[in-house]
Structures are given as structure tokens and as C-alpha cells.
Structure of SNARE-interacting protein KEULE:
Amino acid sequence: MSLDSDTSSQGGDHRNFRQITRDRLLFEMLRSTKKNSKSTWKVLIMDKFTVKIMSYACKMADITEEGVSLVEDLYKRRQPLPSLDAIYFIQPTKENIVMFLSDMSGRSPLYKKAYVFFSSPVHKELVAQIKKDSSVLPRIGALSEMNLEYFAIDSQGFTTDHERALEELFSENAEGSHKYNACLNTMATRISTVFASMREFPRVHYRVAKTINASTMTTLRDLVPTKLAAGVWNCLAKYKTTIPEFPQTETCELLIVDRSIDQIAPIIHEWTYDAMCHDLLCLDGNKYVHEVPSKNGSATEKKEVLLEDHDPVWLELRHAHIADASERLHDKMTNFVSKNKAAQLHQTRNGGEVSTRDLQKMVQALPQYSDQIDKLSLHVEIAGKLNNIIREQCLRDVGQLEQDLVFGDAGTKELINFLRTQLGVSRENKLRLLMIYAALNPEKFESDKGAKLMQLAGLSADDMIAVNNMRCLCGPDTKKSSGGGFTLKFDVHKKQAHRKERTGEESAWALSRFYPVLEELIEKLSKGELPKDEYNCMNDPSPSFHGLPTSSSVRTSPAHSMRSRRTGGTWARPRGSDDGYSSDSVLKHASSDFKKLGQRIFVFVIGGATRSELRTAHKLSSKLKREVILGSSSLDDPPQFITKLKLMSAEELTLDDLQI
């Protein structure tokens, strides 16, 4: 396995996480086959998992450019192409080896030559099985371990595709289940391939099992981070002897936690553009479907678009507050119209304001600006939809109470009053409010108080399952004081606060007070200040390990006075305020800043990460001057997370049976 010298965080020119993943697939795998192949074009064959790995990191045009003329499914009947060479990118499973041998053995193989790349380490027995077939061996051009078995969902994020991790690791029936160990083993292998790709050897930190006292038994649920850390450590130890140029000393840090560190982040309404799109709109992954005027002008037609990094407007707005995003879109539209005479003429014809439909029609009238107007009209439409949903579902009132509960400005009385008076709030949003309340006050649900609140909210027994199962994530210490990361702040004028205000940062917009616990943990990790009673490390620290100039990792901004929490009828923005993160200036200089970064920080959340946590990875990369990469078993939006909580005690049900 060849590794470029600039992949680790100690190397030269910086490439982000997804770029390194993409380059390995395109150059180390696909391009490497050109050296010993006489075939100009090749067939790329993948299984159901590896095709997703490829699709998250590469475009079809990228693959074609590397000489691939056809992409095939390993398990579908394929046309023989004996004049072409084939590249197999597959998982090292018995079933896949059987299919590969079936393709290439005998007198009439499907392809001329096969270059085989496994996504993770292959067992010796499977290699022996391949070697047994004397007709196949001469037809193999390469047999290699890529050690790349994760989905690069973001420039700074990945998942291991364990959608049922909550159920398999934390449910009441997890203990003694074969799925428990299988899930942990696969997860450990896939996390380890991230470090193989990045050429990084981490210090492995993990949240320790929580116990109340010496007589309390530690359950398998409590040991999940410990067991996963051990699994990752074992894989990395093997890499040190099997992968050429793999680092022998620590180059970065890895923190492994589970969903118990923060049960509120997956449920609370997040007010940034990206999070709201995935929470409130019916997206299929990152795919959004909208209507545009047909080319003949007679009717509308549906068009699919991807909300991803290739869209510059999305890239700029994704982490902005919805009000900020709406303002910026309005400014962009006004600016475009002011500089374009044809657009001004269209505006005059329609009496002033330019609508989304007007913008879409301009695409036909001004073909030279089609891509620019296309993107602009798309996001104007999306922002408009989001703002309509916010109004229709009374989400600002819901969001205000959510954050007041978390920060100790509201309690049981305010919640009961809200449930009695706010009749227009949906069942789902009432459920989310009660889940937040239950996470903050688990003792209230040990009596009939919880049932009475559920009854007042008009929720079902099915919904109660989700509330109760949140307590499975708490471990034995349900009345915890710190929650493996919660910072408590008490005030004589407040009820109990479960998050402290961020004194070093003034939020520019209303409903921006909430932040994930992960933000605090990453900052502590960067400073070497993780609580020793809550977090252990698999390897002893090397001297002078923390790879940044101390000043940049420890430095904090001067404290600002907190703005008023109540904002009336508008999105309040202090004059001249800037959160220093979502501004255009940061976006413009992000790539150049990456070249100056210190050692990477990897964080893995077992049981599903949130978009607010992914945003935190981006935010802290700028703040700490260290690339922060977030990994998880899955990336969940609130409805998905609630469904998964219900599945924790619903063996007979499947994901398709439960709809939120």
C-alpha cells in the first residue's frame, strides 16, 4: 500500500479528509492499474457497500477520467467482456470471493485480467481460497488491501454505516446478542481504515463506563466505548506492522464517545440552513426535488438537485442561521438584478419584487447566467419553504421553550402551560419537547408524572417508548451531575441549568444559544484537559504531544455581554455582530488556513451524530487551527433518531414500520 507523504497532519500541503479519500480511490486504486495493463478502458466492479464508498467520494466523471468505461454490480448478471480488464473493489467476504472466482475461473472468464482491491484486511483463509484456483491466479493483475471502508459524507465527516447501532448496542436485549459483538468488530475495523487512509496513528481516548458505587454492575451498554476503543487499538497495532510507512508514534488524537454524552443534540431544533433542510424538508439523503418551468414554457417539470459542496451557494449558507441565510439570499438576488439590465426589465414587468418563478424564467432568457440563477432560485425557494414551515408549525415558540429548558430559564410549569395553550404545535414537536424534558429530568419519569405529561401532550404509547428508551442511553447514573460532558451552571434566579452560556461567543441570531456537548469536549481534548475520571487513553501520552502552538489551542476570545434572550417578532441581530464563523471571510480563507493547521482531531460518536455536531467540527477547525473530523455510526436527523429510539425495544418492527 503506497501512501503519499502529505496525508498526515504533519505533512506538507494540506488536503482535507474527503480529498484524501477521493485521491486514494482514483489514483492509488484506479490509476495504479494502468501501469501493467494493455487495456485502455476497464470495467469497475463493486458490491453494494463499496459502491456507496465510491459514490460519497467520487463523481462518475472522475472515474471515467481514470479509464473506467463501465461500472457493474458484483451480484448482477453481467455481459462477458473478455477483451477488457476488470477492477474489483469489494469487501473481503466469503460471498464476494465466491462471486469473483466465478467471474474469473474456467476456460471463459468474464474479463481478461482482474485487479482486486479489498476495502479492509482480508483473512488468510480467503486468500488461500483464491490461490487454490490455478485458472484464476495467472489472470490476477493485483491483489491488494485498500483499507478504505467508510463513507466520506463530508469534507470533515464520515460514517461507518451502522444504522442499527443504537438497537444492537444499547437496547435491553443487546447483552448476549451476537449482533452486539459483530457490530462493534465491524465498526472498529471501519474506523481503523480511516487512519490507514489518512496515514495517522492516534492517541485513542474513550469515555469510561459510569458506575454509581462499587456494588453497581457495569453493563455491556456502559462498556461500548471501552470495547470499541480496544477494537480500534488492536487494528491499529496490526497496521503498524503491515502497512508500509504507517506512523510508529502518535500523530493525532481520537476521542470515542457514545450518544449518552448528549441526548439533547439529536432532538432539539437546530436553526442553521443545513440542519433545517434535513429536519423539515422531505429530502432523500442530500437530494431535493423541486419544480422548474419546462423548456417549452407550457408547464412545470420536476428536477432533482443535490445539496452538496459542488454548489457554491450551499457551501456558503449551509452553516448559517436560517435568518442569516435568508438575508444573504435576498442580498444576492438584489445584487444580481441591479447589475443586469435584462433582469431589471423583468422586474419592472412584474411590478418590483423578483419571485422564484421569475428567477427560473430568467434562466431561459439569460442562458449565460443559467447556472448562477439556477442555484440562486433553488435556494431562494428552499429558504422560503423553510420560513413558511417555521411560521405554520410555530417553531420559534417551540425552539424558545426548548432552549429555555436546557439553559434553566423554564421548567415543568412552563412546559405544562405550553402544552395546554399551544394547540397548533404538531405531535412530533410536542414529543421532541418532552424528550428534551425527560433527558434533563429523568427522575420525573420514574413516577406517573411522565405519563400525565404525555397524556396532556396527546402522545401515544408508541411515543412513550422513545421517551423511556432515552434512559437506556444514560447508563446506570441517570441522575448524573456532569453527564460525561454536561457543564452545569447554577444561578439563584434560574432553575437548574444543564448547559452554561458560552461566555466567549456572542450569538448573532435568536435561538442560537444551544451548542452540542461535543464542542466542549473537543476544546478540552485540544487543551489536554479531558476529565481523567471520565476519559481514559489506550496509549500513554508522548512527550510534547499536543501538536499545536499552545497559544492557538488555549487562547479564548474576550467575554462579551450576552444579548437579550427574548427577541420579539424578528430574528434579532446585534449591530455589527459577527459570530466569526459563518461569515464570507472565513469561507474565502478556509482552504488557505488549512495549510497552517496543527495535528488532526478525530471524534467518533457511537449511536449517531447530528448536523449540529458536524457543524461544530467545521467551526472548531477554524477556531483551534486543527482539522476536526467527525465520525459516527450514522448521521441522524431528529425524525430518524426518534425512530431508532423506538426500535430499541421493538424487535418485531423494522425501520420501515415506524414513521415519525
Remarks:
- Confidence is low (pLDDT under 50) at residues 1-6, 477-493, 542-569, 574-592.
- The radius of gyration is 26 Å.
- The chain is about 40% helix and 10% strand.
- The CA atoms of residues 22 and 58 lie 6 Å apart.
